[in-house]
Write a structure and sequence with these properties.
Blueprint: E1 5-13, E2 18-26, H1 31-38, H2 40-43, E3 53-56, E4 59-61, E5 72-76, H3 83-92
Parallel strand pairs: 1-5
Antiparallel strand pairs: 1-2, 3-4, 3-5
Length: about 90
């Protein structure tokens, strides 16, 4: 007998491109499994799986978090500048 599958999206964006990859995985799969299955780590070799900041629909999550049907896993890039400091600099002008 086969295990039921769920479909989730894995989203990642660089300054040059944005990708959203649909994957079908067994129920009770994790954020980490979805990221690996999506192939995004191969497509963007600069991503380091051990220090990924991830979320599900904008809510910070852990790699061990189980997924549900229709979830969207988002991989966040590190900030180039501190947003508070950027606002201070704009206000100072």
């Amino acid at each position: 007998m086969f295990e039921p599958l769920i479909e989730v999206e894995v989203a990642y964006a660089t300054s040059a491109e944005q990708v959203i990859i649909n994957v079908k995985l067994p129920e009770q799969t994790t954020v980490e499994s979805a990221i690996i299955a999506s192939g995004v780590l191969t497509r963007f070799p600069d991503l380091n799986k051990t220090v990924l900041n991830v979320g599900i629909f904008g809510q910070i999550s852990q790699l061990e978090q189980p997924l549900k049907q229709g979830d969207r896993v988002e991989i966040y890039r590190p900030l180039m500048r501190d947003p508070k400091e950027a606002r201070r600099q704009r206000a100072a002008k």
